[in-house]
Recover the amino acids of this structure.
């Protein structure tokens, strides 16, 4: 994975809570067996509404998505972060995320940034007011900066280190291959096998 | 004396392969379930990296999401391609597979328990959020993404940050007409779609103990709808009786060893949870969802709420949007809502007990005019069992479609979908916009309410028929 330390750009205000992964990429588009090419299906149904924010020219080229609480709930489909990333997003800022979605984002270098509700509101208002507002997410400094907002965020230390260094999770785990092998010798023999 | 531990902590601790300060624990995975939708990219990545599957003997694959529930063939070329990819990957990496058309096929969360793969104390993962179902046996079972599927295939482990624990205690007797589905819909209504985030839920109390394994699976299944990382029920004699004699359950002296081990799993007296919730079983009623997330529900006796009655801004906005999508006016009685489709199926409610309950209600009755009603058994084994019991004929005589096993209308990846504007009463787990087909409107209900609704033509309970 490419190291990720900083995302700077404009943002799309998706002012809704509980945005589930079925909305981010509907099931009928999960039939691809490739990892790429999901961007065109992002928010497929909502995009049919001309007034949907992602159709608003003024937000074209944004790299940050601002959203409401409990973003990414529901299905575990990693296709959701793939679609966001393929569309050009590099960070999502919301008051809270669903666990599996947050994991999936970290695996592909899409930053899930949790800020207090009021700060997300302030960012949304700033971006609604002026779509050219630039936001900087700094994973190294754990800060989000915009003209009207300056906020620090918490991020799991280990995940942050993996993202900053661009480490591959499997390579990291394989450092413990001997412990894995030794654990396997201690497993009870009656455990189920295929 | 050792510190009292919860069930979740016990299962967690015995799977730690590597622990270091500032790092997630590396947990060993006892059972990896695989299906066709979330695995192809993982296998492809393995191939590109020149890696193999570490423990094909702990990996089990089936086809469920895409499969047709009619005779076939698979008419959708991309579905067929995905199913072929899984068959090819299973062959290449020497993984046991129950393909479409085989006797062992079914929804991944139905076949695991039914074949005895799912056992107390195991760590179980699958690239599917409803993996929480397996927690009904006292296993720690989590849904994972495709990158994690690849990680487990390659290493048989998963790095996991410690979860918090939440006890959900349901005491008392469930009223007649209330089922496990109503318990979990009631819980989600109470704690919300994000109420379980970061937590492993443990369902406890006399109402949970009184449930069959199937009921416990229904409850654990929907833990993810409260945002939880997993849901669990402590194993007990009900669990052991269910498992004994299943194809992959231990036998002979191993069975005795396993029992000794499983009996040590329940949370110790005095174990503390990070959060605790108490639910009065006697106060529950059949629940029906009116909105587009599973927390947006009321009881069957209620009416569609007024969005402005929600104090919280986000909830109010969400309710307004949901009612627009659902084409419902505030104040309409739930019993006056008229679905045109009834779906009995999904990993939440497609097991033999669910079908028995539904068949008992529709027997000797006829599906309402204009109603499309279908029953999709969770597995080929459930289907055969139901046919042995004559349930298929009961459903067919009442005017239901009797189908083959799969996910079907739970998520509409196969031809079983709602058309735009169609409205279902569904025993599945998600009422998200478009979940059952774009523009489709879903009301989540129990099998009993689904069956009664099919007959009456409007949302109702069997007692009203
Ligand atoms: S039945 Fe529905 S929820 Fe269950 S695994 Fe299939 S698609 Fe997912």
């Amino acid at each position: 994975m490419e190291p990720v330390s900083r995302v700077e750009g404009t943002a799309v205000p998706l002012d809704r809570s509980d945005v589930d992964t079925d909305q981010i990429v509907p099931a009928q588009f999960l039939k691809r067996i490739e990892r790429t090419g999901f961007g065109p299906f992002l928010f497929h149904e909502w995009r049919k509404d001309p007034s949907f924010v992602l159709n608003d020219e003024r937000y074209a080229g944004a790299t940050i998505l601002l959203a409401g609480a409990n973003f990414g709930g529901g299905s575990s489909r990693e296709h959701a972060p793939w679609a966001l990333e393929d569309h050009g997003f590099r960070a999502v800022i919301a008051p809270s995320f669903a666990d599996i979605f947050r994991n999936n984002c970290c695996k592909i270098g899409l930053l899930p940034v949790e800020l207090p509700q009021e700060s997300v509101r302030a960012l949304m208002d700033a971006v609604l007011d002026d779509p050219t507002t630039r936001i900087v997410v700094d994973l190294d400094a754990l800060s989000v900066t915009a003209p009207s907002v300056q906020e620090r965020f918490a991020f799991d230390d280990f995940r942050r280190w993996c993202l900053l260094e661009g480490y591959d999770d499997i390579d990291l785990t394989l450092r413990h291959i001997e412990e894995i092998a030794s654990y396997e010798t201690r497993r009870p023999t009656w455990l189920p096998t295929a | 004396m050792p510190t009292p531990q919860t069930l979740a902590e016990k299962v967690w601790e015995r799977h730690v392969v590597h622990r270091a300060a500032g790092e997630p624990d590396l947990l060993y995975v006892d059972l990896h379930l695989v299906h066709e939708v979330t695995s192809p990219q993982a296998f492809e990545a393995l191939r590109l990296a020149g890696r193999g599957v570490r423990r094909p003997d702990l990996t089990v694959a089936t086809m469920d999401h895409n499969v047709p529930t009619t005779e076939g063939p698979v008419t959708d070329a991309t579905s067929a391609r995905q199913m072929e990819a899984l068959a090819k990957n299973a062959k290449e990496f020497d993984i046991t597979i129950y393909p479409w058309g085989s006797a062992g096929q079914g929804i991944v969360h139905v076949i695991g328990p039914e074949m005895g793969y799912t056992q107390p104390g195991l760590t179980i993962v699958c690239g599917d959020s409803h993996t929480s179902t397996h927690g009904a046996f006292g296993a720690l079972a989590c849904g994972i993404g495709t990158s994690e599927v690849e990680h487990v295939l390659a290493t048989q482990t998963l790095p996991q940050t410690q979860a918090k624990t939440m006890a959900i205690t349901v005491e008392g007797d469930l009223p007649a007409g209330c089922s496990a589905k109503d318990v979990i819909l009631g819980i989600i209504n109470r704690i919300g779609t994000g109420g379980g985030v970061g937590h492993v839920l443990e369902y406890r109390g006399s109402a949970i103990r009184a449930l069959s394994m199937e009921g416990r699976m229904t409850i654990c299944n929907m833990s993810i709808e409260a945002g939880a990382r997993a849901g669990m029920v402590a194993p007990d004699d009900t669990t052991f009786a269910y498992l004994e004699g299943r194809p992959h359950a231990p036998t002979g002296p191993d069975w005795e060893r396993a029992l000794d081990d499983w009996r040590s799993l329940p949370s110790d007296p005095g174990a503390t949870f990070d959060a605790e919730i108490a639910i009065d079983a006697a106060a529950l009623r059949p629940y029906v969802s009116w909105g587009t997330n599973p927390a947006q529900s009321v009881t069957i006796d209620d009416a569609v709420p007024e969005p402005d009655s929600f104090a919280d801004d986000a909830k109010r906005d969400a309710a307004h949007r949901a009612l627009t999508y659902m084409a419902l006016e505030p104040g309409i009685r739930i019993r006056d809502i008229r679905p045109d489709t009834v779906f009995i199926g999904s990993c939440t409610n497609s097991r033999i007990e669910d079908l028995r309950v539904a068949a008992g209600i529709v027997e000797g009755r006829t599906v309402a005019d204009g109603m499309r009603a279908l029953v999709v058994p969770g597995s080929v084994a459930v289907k055969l069992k139901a046919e042995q019991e004559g349930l298929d004929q009961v459903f067919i005589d009442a005017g239901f479609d009797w189908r083959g096993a799969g996910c079907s209308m739970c998520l509409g990846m196969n031809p079983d979908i709602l058309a735009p504007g169609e409205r279902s009463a569904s025993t599945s787990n998600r009422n998200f916009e478009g979940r059952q087909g774009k523009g489709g409107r879903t009301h989540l209900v129990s099998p009993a309410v689904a069956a009664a609704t099919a007959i009456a033509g409007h949302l109702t309970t069997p007692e009203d028929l």
Notes: Chain B touches chain A through 85 residues (CB under 8 Å). The mean pLDDT of chain B is 97.
